[in-house]
Design a protein that fits this description.
Blueprint lengths: L1 H19 L9 H5 L16 E5 L6 E6 L4 E4 L3 H28 L3 H4 L4 H10 L1 H13 L2 H20 L7 H6 L8 H16 L4 H11 L1 H7 L49 E7 L10 E9 L1 E2 L4 E6 L4 E6 L8 E4 L2 E7 L5 E7 L7 E4 L2 E4 L1 E9 L2 E11 L2 E5 L10 E7 L7 H10 L3 H8 L7 E7 L4 E6 L14 E2 L18 E3 L5 E4 L22 H9 L7 H8 L5 H13 L7 H11 L11 H16 L15 H10 L17 H23 L4 H5 L4 E2 L28 E3 L2 E5 L5 E5 L17 H5 L4 E2 L12 E9 L1
Parallel strand pairs: 1-28, 3-7, 6-23, 11-20
Antiparallel strand pairs: 2-3, 2-28, 4-5, 4-22, 5-24, 5-25, 7-8, 8-9, 9-10, 10-18, 11-17, 12-13, 14-15, 15-16, 16-17, 18-19, 19-21, 25-26, 26-27
Length: 803
Amino acid sequence: MKYLKFVVSLLLTALVFYGLNNKFGSIPPIGKFLNPYTGIWQNERETKIDGTIALAGLKEEVTVHYDEHLIPHVFAQNDLDLYRVQGYITAKHRLWQMEFQTYGAAGRISEIIGEVALDYDRHQRRRGNVYGAERALKKMQENPELYSALEAYAAGVNDFVNELDGANLPVEYKLLDYQPEFWTPLKSALFLMYMTKDLAGGDNDLEYTNALRIFGKERFDLLFPDFFDTIDPVIPMETDWSFITTPITPVPQGEIPLDTIAQTLPNPPPGIGSNNWAVSGKKTYSGNAILANDPHLKLNLPSIWYIMQLSTPEYNSFGATLPGALGVISGFNNYISWGETNATRDVMDWYKIEFRDAGMEEYRYDGKWEKSTLRVEEIKIKGQPSYIDSVYYTRHGPVVFDPNFRSESGYSGYAMKWMGHEGGNTQSTFIKLNKSKNYSDYKEALKNHIAPAHNFAFASVDGDIALWIQGKFPNKWKGQGKFLMDGSNPEHEWQGFIPQEFNAHTLNPERGFVSSANQHPVDPSYPYFVFNDFYEAYRNRIINDFFTSKETFDIQDFKNLQNNNYNLKAYELLPFIFETMDSTSLSGDELVIYEKIKKWDFYNDISKIGPSIWTSWWEELYDLTWDEFNKEGVALTKPTSYQTIHLLKTKGDDPFMDIVKTPEKEAAKDLFLISFKNAVRSLSVWEEENGEYNWQTYKGTYVGHLLQGLPAFSHFDLPIGGDGSTVNAATKNHGPSWRMIVEMTSPPTAYGIYPGGQSGNPGSKYYDNFIESWARGNYLNLLFMQAKTNKEGIMATQTLIPQ
C-alpha cells in the first residue's frame, strides 16, 4: 500500500510540475510566470539608466541623459553611433511592442497566440505587407549610407536582446511564453508597413461598386460626391495652379465590372486622423512662428510614440519617435519644426482578374494570357501544423480574393494595386527632416516620401511656414479608382504619376497660417483628380475659423485649441431638428430629455449629458436614414456624416428618408422623432446598468494594452472630452496620440504630452504616468538640451563606450 501511495504522490507531483511549466490555451506556464527569480515579480524592477555600458561596434563614446520623465537625451559623435544607441535605448524600454507590431504587419500573430489569429494573419499576407516591406528595403539598400544606419539601429536593438535573460524578459513574453527574435532592417521596413497599412490601407472601391450597381450612377453621385457643398481645403482656395503643366489622364474607353461582392478587407479603425497647423510670426504674440501637431491614432499601451532627443555635432533633434523606425517623426531641431497629418488620398485600387483555369497560373491582359507569380505563404501556428496559403501576384498586385479566399466567382479574383507596394524610401525623409535647417532642406527631404501620404506642416526660425501634401499619387482620370476596374484592360492601369513638384503645397500664405485636419486637400480648381472615401468635415473648419478670429495668438491659445471640445457637427444639425421635428407626441420622460438637449451648448465636456444624448440620437438617426444599406451578402458602406446631414436638411422628402421595414411613408422630420424616441429608450437602459450618462462615463475613453485581453495593463474611463468631430478628437479608443507645440525661438521652446509613458514595462511608474495629465489637457515642458555637459533637469546619466 505504501508503494501505491508513493506512486500516486509521484504522479501527482509530475502532473503539477508539468502543469506549472506548460501552457494551457491562453494561460501561460504558471510556474514560469510566478517564479520568484525569473517570473513577473522581476518586472517590478526599473530598467537601469545609469552607469557605463560597453557596446561592441560603437566607434566613440555616447552619452545618454534621462530627465525626470525618463526621456533620453542622446549625444553621439557620429550618425551610426547615434542610430545604434537609438535602437538600443528604444529596445531597452519598448522591445516587446516593437516586435509585436512587426509580427502583426507580417501576419505572424498565430505564431504567438495560436489559431485564433489565423484569419487576421491571412488578411495581412494577402495584403502583401511583407512583399511591400521587401520592396521598400530594396529601395533603401540603394542608399548605402541609409542602409548602414538601418543596420546600426538593428545592431543596437540586438545589443539589448543579447542582454536579456529569463528574469528581465519583458512581461508580455512571459505571459505568451515565447522569446524575442533578433532585429533586422527588414523588421524596420515591416514596421513602416504597419504604419502605412493603418494610415493608407483603406478604401471602399468594392463597396462603391455594389452601391453603383444597386442604386445607379445618379443616386450614387448624390450619396458620395467628390466635393462637399462647403469645403475649407488644406491648401487655401485662392491658390494659383497655373504653374502645373502635366495634364490629367484622359478618361479611357471600357466598362467597369459591376460584380456583386459579399466581403471585403477590414478598413483601418475609425478615428484615424490628425491635426496640424503653423502660424507665422505676424500672427503670434512674440513674432516667432509656432507649430502644432496632434496625430489621432489608436490609444494603446505601450504608446505608439516614444520621446527622444537625438544629437550629433551636425544636428540636434527632439520629438516623438516610432519604436522600430530611425529618427524623430514629429518634432523639431534648432532650426525647423515639422508635424504630419494623414493626407487621406485614394492610393489603393481593385482590379477584376480573369484566370485561364483553376490553376490560376495565367490571367487575361490586353487580349492575351499573362503569367501570374505564386507566393507561398507559410503561416506558423502555435501548437499546430503550419497553414499554407497560395497568393498569386499579377501586374496589378496580389490577388487578395480568389477561389481560395472569400470568393466564389469561378476562375476570377480581385487584385489590389496599392501604393504601399511601390517600395519607397520613407525612412530617408525623416532622417533628412531631422537634419534640415530651412525650407529648401525641408522640401528636399519630402521628395522620397511615397506612402502613406502626409500633410507635412513646417515652421522655421527664419519665420517661414509651409505645408506640402506629399506622397506618390497616380495621375488618375476623373473617377478612376472609385470602383472595381477591368484587370484585362491596359487603359484601366495607372497611366503615370503626378510629378512631385505639382503636389499641392503652400509657402507663407497671405492669411498667415497653414493647417490640415484630413479634409479635402484642394478645391475643384486643382487640375488633377483628387478623391478619398471620407474627408473630414468639421475639425478643419473649427481650426481655420479660430485662426481668422483674432489678430494674434499665444501658446495658451494653441493649447486651448488642441483641447477644444466644440461640436460643429451637432451645431449644424440640431437647431434644424428643433425647428422641424413635431415634438407633440413626446411622453413626459422624453420631453425632459428633449429639453436637456435643447439647452446644450454644443461642447462635448466631460460633465455634460448633452453630448451623450446627441451621440445616442445621432447613431439612431444615421442607422435609420441608411437602412437601405443593410443588405445580406453584399458589402456596402454608408455615406459620410456630413453628406447625411446635408441631405437631411435639403432633401427631407427623398426616398432614402423612408424606412424600409415600415408601410408608412416617412420623411426626415419623421426620422428625427423616431430616432429620438429610440435614443431615449437606449439611454434609459444604459442609465439603469451604468448610472448617470455624463459624457465622461458614457463615452468611456480608455487606453488599452496592445493585447486587448489585459485590462490590468490598461486605463479606463478617462476624464477627457471631445469626440471624433471635435478638434480634441478623443473617441472611445482613438484620439490625440501625441500633442506637440513648438515656438521657433532660438533654440525652440516646446511642449508635449501623450497618453502613456516612456517605459513599456507595466511594473514601472513610467509606464502610464502621462495619461491623467494628457486627459486633462496639460503638457510637459520639453527639455531641449543644447550640450551634453548641461545637466540641469537630468535624473540619471548612462555612458555607452566601445567594447
